[in-house]
Design a protein that fits this description.
Elements (H helix, E strand, L loop, with lengths): L2 H15 L12 H10 L5 H11 L6 H4 L4 H8 L5 H19 L7 H4 L7 H12 L8 H9 L8 H11 L5 H14 L12 H6 L2 H4 L3
Helix pairs in contact: 1-11, 2-8, 5-6, 9-10
Length: 213
């Protein structure tokens, strides 16, 4: 079976289990999505949503955000971890958006990646979820799943993204990105993974995964 054939069969399972894929991070526009995704690094979506529910009523635009000090931003976001770096990035990117883009979030991935604290994965999420531009954001969880399922070599998240884009049509990338996140949480966690309860790994997982390694 080729990777494309396997990918199609896995996609059918994902479509059956997760036909609807709402964006898990609460937001109202590209800016609030950008902030939420930035906060999600090493933090659960649930925790991010709890934090932004308090932060966004106070500051949901770049104009409002820079009225807060970095220290004040930190007080809002510190429960999600990496607070010092994230608070500095949020303040600086908000300031840059005002200075360079009239307060608007740019809709080009290379411009997003130039913003403080915004890496390729964060920029990809914003591009696809805020602007509808095809992208396949790959975090460590999707990287792990793609390796377990034999869809990628698992050498790096960059290689995994490249491999998945070759297997799947661009029109499906965003939905698959979210489906894999939801699937991983419910059936294919990093720890305490039960192969008999994981439909994909049970049938398509690498040999060492099926053996419980």
């Amino acid at each position: 079976m080729t990777k494309k054939e396997k990918g199609k069969e896995i996609q059918a399972i994902l479509n059956e289990l997760f036909p609807y894929t709402p964006v898990p991070l609460h937001h109202k526009d590209p800016y609030t999505l950008l902030i939420a995704v930035l906060l999600s690094a090493q933090c659960t979506d649930e925790r991010v949503n709890q934090i932004t529910a308090i932060l966004f009523p106070k500051a949901s635009t770049p104009q409002e955000m820079i009225l807060l000090s970095i220290e004040e931003i930190y007080e809002f976001i510190k429960p999600c971890g990496l607070g010092p770096a994230k608070s500095k990035a949020i303040f600086n990117l908000s300031k840059l958006l005002l200075e360079k883009y009239n307060g608007q979030v740019p809709n080009q991935i290379h411009l997003l990646e130039e913003l403080p604290g915004v890496g390729h994965k964060t920029a990809s999420v914003v591009m696809v979820q805020a602007f509808g531009v095809p992208a396949f954001p790959v975090d460590t969880h999707i990287h792990r799943l793609a390796y377990r399922w034999g869809l990628s070599t698992g050498k790096s998240v960059e290689k995994t993204e490249e491999d998945l884009k070759k297997i799947y049509d661009s029109k499906d990338w965003n939905k698959l990105h979210l489906q894999m996140i939801y699937y991983g949480r419910k059936f294919c966690p990093a720890r305490a993974h039960k192969i008999d309860q994981c439909p994909v790994c049970k049938k398509y997982g690498r040999a060492e995964i099926k053996k419980g390694n």
